[in-house]
Design the sequence.
């Protein structure tokens, strides 16, 4: 039982980690295809990520010691499922508690979520659910049959045709049950009202800040890792790798410069672009307003520590100020709006005169 709980936590952790990495593009796609970020749909996509990792963790992990494995064969008789049911019904006691029947039920239930995701998230029907269930189950079973594709000298878990059948049945059942979800909520196609302007709220502005923060963090971290690898394997400078300042500076400079270029080019940060927001209406020249919008955002505030000295704690303090201003300024225009003299609006609205364009 303890191992199963641990595997569940592993699946959740990996699924959430992938969800964080994919969050910014997911937000951007949601706003362009559906006009907003729905809480229920976001949770459903996160559940799908966790589910697919759970399939792999529960079917492959824990990986055994190669010296301790016991080679097993394959169960290729499709009638084995029928015999398992007959055995459970013929056994004394409650057949619903028989291990063979419980295993069959578990195999069906394991793939029910897949059918739901096919119907609700992909907008597809029974045929696609059947193909998806069979394909995913076949991939799992083949991975077991090949000893994790040659990692082990032989299969240490059974390849079972019965599992293929019950898993596929589970996907079909899930797709059928998902018919209760209203048609308007199914599928990933663009909604007809996706291009309509919507009210600007502090929650939406907070989402833009979150996207900016995550995007900035990933760019900075990715560049830092690349520089560390270059210092380690190309320059063979272990001292610089251990010190870390060169890599950190390179990551910060790259991320801040990228945000500056994006804002100077279009007047909107990565987060603004993701949630379809824009700053407009400043009396300042366009380049000046856009530069100050960068200064008041994650790009400028994140670059302050590069100046050293008191600028390092000032960066953290100003980030806290920016968060406070999110809740105390009109529509959450915050520090970027105060510095640039601009107001927030929906990027899909007719702007009229716009000094940021």
Sequence:
């Amino acid at each position: 039982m303890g191992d199963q709980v641990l595997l569940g936590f592993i699946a959740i952790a990996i699924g959430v980690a992938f969800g964080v990495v994919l969050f910014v593009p997911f937000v951007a796609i949601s706003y362009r295809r559906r006009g907003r970020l729905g809480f229920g749909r976001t949770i459903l996509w996160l559940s799908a990520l966790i589910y697919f990792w759970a399939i792999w963790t529960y079917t492959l992990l824990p990986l055994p010691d190669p010296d301790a494995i016991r080679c097993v064969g394959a169960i290729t008789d499709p009638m084995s499922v029928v015999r398992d049911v007959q055995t459970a019904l013929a056994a004394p006691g409650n057949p619903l508690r028989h291990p063979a029947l419980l295993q069959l039920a578990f195999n069906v239930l394991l793939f029910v979520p897949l059918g739901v995701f096919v119907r609700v998230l992909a907008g597809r029907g029974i045929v696609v659910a059947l193909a998806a269930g069979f394909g995913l189950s076949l991939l799992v079973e083949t991975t077991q049959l090949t000893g994790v594709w040659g990692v082990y000298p032989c299969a240490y878990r059974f390849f079972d045709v019965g599992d293929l059948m019950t898993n596929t049945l589970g996907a079909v059942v899930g797709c059928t049950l998902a018919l209760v979800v209203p048609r308007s909520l199914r599928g990933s196609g663009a909604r007809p009202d996706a291009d309509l302007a919507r009210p600007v709220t502090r929650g939406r502005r907070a989402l833009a800040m979150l996207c900016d923060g995550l995007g900035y963090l990933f760019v900075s971290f990715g560049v830092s890792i690349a520089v560390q690898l270059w210092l380690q394997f190309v320059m063979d400078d272990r001292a610089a790798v251990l010190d870390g300042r060169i890599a950190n500076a390179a990551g910060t400079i790259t991320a801040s410069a990228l945000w500056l270029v994006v804002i100077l080019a279009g007047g909107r940060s990565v987060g603004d672009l993701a949630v379809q927001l824009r700053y407009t209406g400043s009396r300042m020249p366009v380049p000046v307003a856009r530069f100050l919008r960068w200064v008041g955002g994650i790009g400028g505030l994140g670059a302050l520590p590069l100046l050293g000295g008191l600028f390092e704690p000032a960066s953290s303090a100003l980030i806290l100020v920016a968060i406070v201003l999110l809740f105390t300024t009109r529509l959450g225009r915050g520090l970027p709006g105060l510095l640039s003299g601009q107001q927030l609006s929906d990027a899909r609205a007719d702007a009229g005169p716009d000094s940021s364009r």
Observations:
- The radius of gyration is 27 Å.
- Residues 351-357 have pLDDT under 50 and may be disordered.
- The chain has 16 helices and four strands.
